[in-house]
């Protein structure tokens, strides 16, 4: 038995107490009250980026609560509840999303009996529907105001059809959940288990489709709606993970006057629009496939940021980053959630394409999740591992006795990592792995940035003055 030097339970309780007080104070300071789970109107803080203090408090609270429960409850209880049974939750959530139950319940804030709800859902068997909603209510999504009468709450209104998270939820509970059901069989497959080919994913195994998921959606008649749904869902994902933290956390304002920023593979430019609004001195270059550029130039930007077009602060240029390099000579090449979709060799190809057109003082900013793993304590020489371990010290580490990566408090990065394995046979990466990709492409690591839920890896031309 390991006897800890200090009492971890007392330390976890203190972390929970301090984090809860920080979050409570933040809500009250913003609007004078702490929102109840029963509320359905958003609190003002729900639409704002979290402060670093509240972000840290939320991660600590979630991590410490989960670790305390895992420490004090019976291990078989924890394994049964937290590992085996949770697979039912996405499927129950999918029922709520498919039948748009939150939208129906919005019409009766005090609650609706399941028999009426059943009629509105096309005749779903009411007792079965009640059991599904009861499970979700026990997870604090919906509330059962009295037996068989259900109402929305603070969590369930996030599933309204008008919220982009609705689309993301359908993608995750359908595509990801279906693919994950064949993860073990895919890993056991003699050919596919060790393959990193995009078409050898668990999703391919589950669906029987030979094409990669996105190609299947794009090339199969009638499947375009899945790609559109995913695009909408990514807006909800970006809001939930507070991706726009990069706008304030990275020193864009310190770039030279008239600096150029290339949003590489930026879709229709949702992030570039945020930069254009916040930093009108920047000259932005948006690059992606032709369809996205047409949509950006003719639909999104004229509606959302026409001043950038009128002032010639935005350039739209279609390209295929596996075939050609981006616009040359930009000060920053910004890549958000690009490399995690591709194999190591493809990532090197992408970065080499950028390297060819960089100026000596250009930078590459990778906006991705940065996985944290257990530290390697066996290093005894100035090796690549030791260099990477030193670089890893720039990452935020949780206070003792939490797991260094905050455990449940930052679990989303590990969910996404396995989701990418399931859907595209790709991955999130550690800082060491990003540094290795950079070296292979003629670049070098400079600094890691904390963007809250996600991170930034800044690169420059190898051996350039930093």
UniProtKB/TrEMBL annotation:
One of its GO terms (molecular function) is O-methyltransferase activity. It holds the Pfam family Dimerisation. InterPro entries: COMT-like (IPR016461), COMT_C (IPR001077), COMT_dimerisation (IPR012967), SAM-dependent_MTases_sf (IPR029063), WH-like_DNA-bd_sf (IPR036388), WH_DNA-bd_sf (IPR036390). This is 3-O-methyltransferase 2. It comes from Favolaschia claudopus. The keyword 4Fe-4S does not apply. Residues 89-160 form the O-methyltransferase dimerisation domain. SUPFAM superfamilies: S-adenosyl-L-methionine-dependent methyltransferases, Winged helix' DNA-binding domain. Residues 201-382 form the O-methyltransferase C-terminal domain. GO terms for biological process: methylation. Keywords: Methyltransferase, S-adenosyl-L-methionine, Transferase.
